[in-house]
Amino acid sequence: MSNDDLIASAQAVLNPRESGDMASGQVASTLVTAQGTLYSGVCIDTPCGMGFCAEHAAIAAMVTAGEYRIARIVAVRRSEEGALHVLPPCGRCREFIRQIDPANLEAEVVLGRERSVPLREMLPYHEWPAAI
Fold this sequence. Notes:
Layout: H1 3-12, E1 17-19, E2 22-33, E3 38-45, H2 54-64, E4 70-78, E5 84-87, H3 91-100, E6 108-112, E7 115-118, H4 119-122
Parallel strand pairs: 4-6
Antiparallel strand pairs: 1-2, 2-3, 2-4, 4-5, 6-7
GO molecular function: cytidine deaminase activity; identical protein binding; zinc ion binding
InterPro entries: APOBEC/CMP_deaminase_Zn-bd, CMP_dCMP_dom, Cyt/Deoxycyt_deaminase, Cytidine_deaminase-like
Family: Belongs to the cytidine and deoxycytidylate deaminase family.
């Protein structure tokens, strides 16, 4: 699956909505597992900070289905002007991806149509520090 295909899959679930003080669907994520299964999710933003990122929603769908290994993951957002943007995962999402399965350090994080990097490069100091 190409970066463009993964981006298109995430774009397909973008569905911004508002309900009272809550917003959802402004960011969407799709991941493909080591077994080749696709999972998608959207963000939920709440005024009290209890929401979660689109990557968390996609990962929750994956774990619900009994999978833990991510081969590739992407998140996208559409600007008010209509331009599509690929977003890097925030620090919380990077750590979450790693903790779901340590092998996910090798997961490819899509950063654009022509660019992806292993999570390991985005989370370089993930080992527990040695005693001094």
